[in-house]
Amino acid sequence: MAIVNVKDSEFGQTVKEGVVLVDFWAPWCGPCKMIAPVLEELNGKVGDAITIAKVNVDDNPETAGQYGVMSIPTLKLFKDGVEVGTQVGFKPLPELEAWVQAQL
């Protein structure tokens, strides 16, 4: 599945079903730029098993505030609408893949 950009208004619907990895990021954030290709590679490995959603915190402060995002990148994992994990900062592919696989 493609990586999707999500706005405040559609966030709840996006995380409602299945396993969703949400990347809270901003275009000016260096570590966010570093993790983007890792998420692309993860997307290629897990395919349709999960959805990867990106939330730009500058454009969507409501969702970022609701989930207490204080630093970026913050990755949150949701399973059927329930938050099941959080990672803050850059993480290498093997670590992210193991984290996601634990929820499948």
From TrEMBL:
Ranges for domain Thioredoxin: 1-104
Keywords noted in UniProt: Disulfide bond, Electron transport, Redox-active center, Transport
Pfam families: Thioredoxin
Highest taxon in the source lineage: Bacteria
Family, as annotated: Belongs to the thioredoxin family.
The protein's name: Thioredoxin
Organism listed in the record: Paenibacillus filicis
